[in-house]
Structures are given as structure tokens and as C-alpha cells.
Write a structure and sequence with these properties.
It is built from 12 helices and 10 strands. By secondary structure, it is of the alpha/beta class. It has one domain: TIM Barrel. The chain is globular and about 60 Å long. It starts with 14 loop residues before the first helix and ends in an 8-residue tail after the last helix. About 2% of the residues have low confidence. The structure holds glyceraldehyde-3-phosphate (G3H), 1,3-dihydroxyacetonephosphate and zinc ion.
């Protein structure tokens, strides 16, 4: 594997992004991608809405894309933003890194930010693994995200059946021991499209803002990350079901709750499932309405357009990250 530093690709780490987000009370979007169309849509949507962006890939997404492609895709993303008229800051981030070795490989191959997710281990093991990644990353000016507390649902290569909320009293000690740059916390979000099983008319339970506030009090100005923050857009779920899909009893985090979180110490909000739903809904619609179509551009193209619309909506109306970058 060829060694590449992220600055050679035109990327930035998350430091300045989070300082601005904290100062101006918005959250930087972190959108997951697995393929070219998703990447193009995310970058176009962020450039068009003048938002900084964190492009994130999980370990399995990195395998799917291939390590030969990834640095070139990141460099192309930087060029694409420029072509769209606004060179918004772009970070390439490893989502849910499961080991020091994986984090190191990513740092050595052009990532500007990495997450080490050892949240399912004991506090001591989590802190030790995080510290090891921080030492290597900081030597390369790469920023590091860790996690305290466990989200419900399946995390990439990390399985967590039940959530256990972050304990605010552990946060200061964890930050002191690790020197990490941002921290993902568990306050009621979870991964995937089936976050809550709701009865008709029932609302999702509110996030535990009391825990978030307690953490903010203990470590003022420290960047907090929210995983599992898809809203599970019901219009996309309805399209999926209308055109042959089967997704029952889906529910996500209401936008109002995310707006409130974005205006707090939450500086990074992770969104994967909503992007998947947006593309799948449109692809299903094209397949159903134009059964003779077999040119991938005719279904991936409209799916990409739908994702651009989704990204712009979230940046403008939910995360408040739109309009933060001046030309
Ligand atoms: O939090 C996990 C992300 O949604 C990535 O999922 O492992 O299917 O790429 P993945
Ligand atoms: P969602 O499944 O809610 O989109 O969460 C994505 C995420 O946290 C990626 O790390
Ligand atoms: Zn996550």
C-alpha cells in the first residue's frame, strides 16, 4: 500500500471544523458512503449549501470500495467541490475503527481523521486502545474520535445488543487519559433504520439531553459526536414499500431533536441510513415505473439527485451547517 498523507489529497482534519461548529453552534455533517454516486451526491450537496463535510467510511465500506480507489475518490471529491464553485473543507474519516492496525492503515493511506471504537470494552481497555491510536494519529496531524457508552443496534464489526448510556462522570478521566479530539456518546440514538418500535400515533422517546448537558458542564467546549442520527425519512420508506420493498415499523430520530443537539456541544452528526433509504427509494421507483430500463445511469442518476436534495435539506434545516463557508 502506497503511503499518502491526507494533505496531499487536499483534505483537512476535523480540528478547525469543530472549533467553528462549537463557536457558531451548528454540527458538521458526517455522511457515510460506499460508492461513487453517494460520494458525488454528498460533496455536491455540501458544496451547493456551503457546508463543511466529513466523508466517512466504515471498515467494511473501505473493503468494498478497495484501498486502491479510496485516496483517488477523496482527491476527486476535493476537485468536485471546487468545480461546484466552493472549496468546502473535506475530511476523510474512518467510521467505527475496530483496531489500532486498521486506524494506522487508514492514517497511512490518506485519512485525515479516524474513529477508534472500543466502547464495548472495559473503560481501561477503551482508554488504552484510544491512547495508542491518538499517539500515532497526532504524530501525523490526524484527529481521533473515540466512544464512551454503547449504542443499541449493530455497529460495524462491533455488535452491541443493548445500549448503555454514557456516564458523564467517566468523561473527564477518559479525555485526560487519552488526549482524544472528540467523543461519541450514547444518549438514546442507535444505528440503522429500525431505531424504535412504535405503536400507531406513538412518538419516539426523546434523547437524553440531561446526560448531554451534564457532559457539557464537565468538559465545556469539547466536541461531542452523535452516531445513529438518521431520521428514517418516512416518505422514502413509503416509496420503498410502494414499489415492492418491505420495511415495517421503521422510526428514526426526529429532526427537532437533532436541531437541538446540533446547537449544543454536538459538533458532528453521523448519517448513513437516511442516505441509503433515499437512493433505494428512487431506484425502486425507476425499476417499477420503467421496467424496460437497464442503463445504470438511468436509475443511479436520479438516486444521486435525490441524495443531493437530502444532503442540502439536512445541512440547511437540521444541522445548521449550510452557509458556514465563504467563497
Ligand atoms: O455505523 C455504521 C455505519 O452505518 C456503517 O455501516 O458497516 O454497513 O458500512 P456498514
Ligand atoms: P444511522 O444508521 O442512524 O444513519 O447512523 C450512522 C452512523 O452512526 C454511522 O457511524
Ligand atoms: Zn456509528
Amino acid at each position: 500500500m502506497k503511503k499518502i498523507h491526507y494533505t496531499e489529497l487536499g483534505l483537512v482534519n476535523t480540528k478547525a471544523m469543530f472549533l467553528q461548529a462549537m463557536d457558531e453552534q451548528f454540527a458538521v455533517p458526517a455522511y457515510n458512503f460506499n460508492n461513487m454516486e453517494q460520494l458525488q451526491a454528498i460533496v455536491t450537496g455540501c458544496a451547493k449549501s456551503a457546508s463543511p463535510v466529513i466523508l466517512q467510511v466504515s471498515g467494511s465500506a473501505r473493503k468494498y470500495i478497495g484501498t486502491a480507489f479510496l485516496p483517488h475518490m477523496a482527491a476527486a471529491a476535493v476537485d468536485l467541490a471546487q468545480e461546484e464553485g466552493l472549496a468546502v473543507p473535506i475530511a476523510l474519516h474512518l467510521d467505527h475503527g475496530s483496531s489500532f492496525e486498521l486506524a494506522k492503515e487508514c492514517i497511512d493511506s490518506g485519512f485525515s481523521s479516524v474513529m477508534i471504537d472500543a466502547s464495548h470494552h472495559s473503560f481501561e481497555e477503551n482508554a488504552a486502545m484510544t491512547r495508542q491510536v491518538v499517539e500515532y494519529a497526532h504524530d501525523h496531524e490526524v484527529t481521533v474520535e473515540a466512544e464512551l457508552g454503547v449504542l443499541a443496534g449493530i455497529e460495524d464489526e462491533v455488535s452491541a445488543e443493548h445500549s448503555s448510556y454514557t456516564r458523564p462522570e467517566e468523561v473527564e478521566r477518559f479525555l485526560e487519559q487519552t488526549g482524544v479530539d472528540s467523543l461519541a456518546i450514547s444518549i438514546g440514538t442507535s444505528h440503522g433504520a429500525y431505531k424504535f418500535k412504535l405503536k400507531p400515533g406513538e412518538e419516539p422517546p426523546p434523547l437524553r439531553f440531561d446526560i448531554l448537558e451534564e457532559i457539557e458542564k464537565r468538559v465545556p467546549g469539547f466536541p461531542i459526536v452523535l452516531h445513529g442520527a438518521s431520521s428514517v425519512t418516512q416518505s422514502h420508506v413509503a416509496l420503498i414499500n410502494q414499489f415492492g420493498g418491505q420495511m415495517d415499523n421503521t422510526a428514526g430520530i426526529p429532526e427537532e431533536q437533532l436541531r437541538k443537539a446540533a446547537a449544543s456541544a454536538v459538533c458532528k452528526v453521523n448519517i448513513d441510513s437516511d442516505g441509503r433509504l433515499a437512493m433505494t427509494a428512487i431506484i425502486r421507483q425507476v425499476f417499477a415505473e420503467k421496467p424496460a430500463e437497464f442503463d445504470p445511469r438511468k436509475y443511479l442518476g436520479p438516486a444521486r439527485d435525490e441524495l443531493i436534495t437530502m444532503v442540502m435539506h439536512k445541512n440547511r434545516a437540521v444541522l445548521g451547517s449550510a452557509g458556514r463557508i465563504q467563497s
